[in-house]
Specification:
Number of domains: 2
Strand order of the largest sheet: 1-2-3-4-5-6-7-8
Oligomer: single chain
CATH class of the largest domain: Alpha Beta
CATH superfamily of the largest domain: Aldolase class I
Number of helices: 12
Shape: globular
CATH architecture of the largest domain: Alpha-Beta Barrel
Order of helices and strands: HHHEHEHEHEHEHEHEHEHH
Structural class: alpha/beta
Helix content: 25-40%
Number of strands: 8
Radius of gyration: 20 Å
Distance between the termini: 48 Å
CATH topology of the largest domain: TIM Barrel
Length: 308
Amino acid sequence: MSLVRDLADQIVAAHRTDDVTLPPPVYSLSSPPPRIDNEHAIDHYELAATLAAISMGFIELDATVLGKAWSRMVHHDGNFDPIKWPNRPEYFDLLPWTRIMNPKAFPECPKRLGLYGVMPDSEWIKRMVDAELPTVQLRLKSNDVKHIHTEIKQSIEAVKGSKTLLFINDYWQSAIELGAYGVHLGQEDLATADLDAIRNAGLRLGLSTHGYAEMVYADRFCPSYIAMGAVFPTTLKRMPTAPQGLGRLYKYAQLMQAYPLVAIGGIDESSMQAVAHSGVGSVAVVRAITGSDNPKATVKRLQELIKR
């Protein structure tokens, strides 16, 4: 185990300035710290990288995925280099075939979705169409089925004849019925949503991810785009992981570059350029627009920042 610890320490030291290290997750009696699995690991490189990832604050699922990827990278290169970081799809068992070859792939959407506004209702959708926002999402919070149906219908009508693309969060049945451009789902929705129905209706699918394990899982469904976050702290939605930060976002974007990518979570005017430079083709914002005194002017300013 001393060799494993030494290799792990080398990895941690090599990436101390990469902005990938976060405070370790807080564990309790009901959620004990992870065990490093000696029995099922392929070799000591996998064990070392898993241990290093946990030391850098990755949750157990992500650390396990990273450990396996690191081992594959070492065997591919023929040597152990702690400075490197696994960034090739084959290290993570990402699907090797292209969208054209995959019969289960969802319809394509633009590689660069641009500034992506996540809006609370159809009135905000209308305002964003007027502001010429390229992509919007209706994230409606309601238990009233009739109200939900009406809001989705009005949002779809609002974008008709415009260049704005509309994704409906969660309510995929109504999105299919009313002919939306696409839907956005969380990982927890994949077990219950009728993905075949969404695909057969010609709707695009965006999936949320919060780290390596969820990105690898999302790849199995070949969605139209992958959202990655939360990049920074946000109080709008409870997240399953700590904010990922720019360092991790840059590595995620490099790995998943075959997909249209959306960065989301706590992004505002001050961080817009740094996020856009990660390689993502879209930056999603909420309060940066809805909390503005002049949303239309803010949209214009944010779009200029993305293009710089």
